[in-house]
Amino acid sequence: MSYRQADSRTGSREPLYERMKGAILAGDLAPGQQLVETTLATTYGVSRTPIRQALTRLEQDGLIERTHRGLVVRERSPDEILDIYEVRIGLEASAASTAALRRTTMDLIALRRLDEQLTSMDGSDAQAIAVANREFHQAIWAASHSEPLIDLLTRLNLHLSRFTATTLSEPGRWQQAGEEHHEILAAIEDRDPERAAEAATHHFETARNLRLAIWARASDT
Which of 15, 7, 24 lies closest to 58 in space, CA to CA? Predict the structure, then answer.
């Protein structure tokens, strides 16, 4: 059996790893849920071997973990939010700073286009703005021309994706984030690495604080 075996119920030929990762990020495989190979094999219509292979990759990604109950989907916690953002703030600041030094004309064209796209959106579609926002920041990563930074940020983004609520839906945040994006882009355009790092740091510190507030509200309900 391969990762590309069709799901017996849906006919999907998406790789098994991607399907299981998507289920975790969407919450269909819930935090704390025990992952039993035989049950998953039945659910996805495959043998235990590809399930085991997919679970190995998901464990390497940090999306699942080993406990006394076996493999489970990682729980979410405010401490994890702090840990993720502590690392992310440093990496995003480094990416913006490096982009300011290494960006090309084509990088600026891509960043300006994405910034204009973000500005034209009214913020009413949470999923659309989250996708557009992610593409803007990924363009900054690309402009850094640093493969290690891009790899680390891509992997870190997996952890953050487990927290499904977007900070951009908070009242006034979409407009504020737009202004912060302009500041980061202007610093990159001016080849000012220190200003780019400071703007990125401020942007993601604000996002961290909002995400903690979202978590606190959800915990009180």
Answer: 24
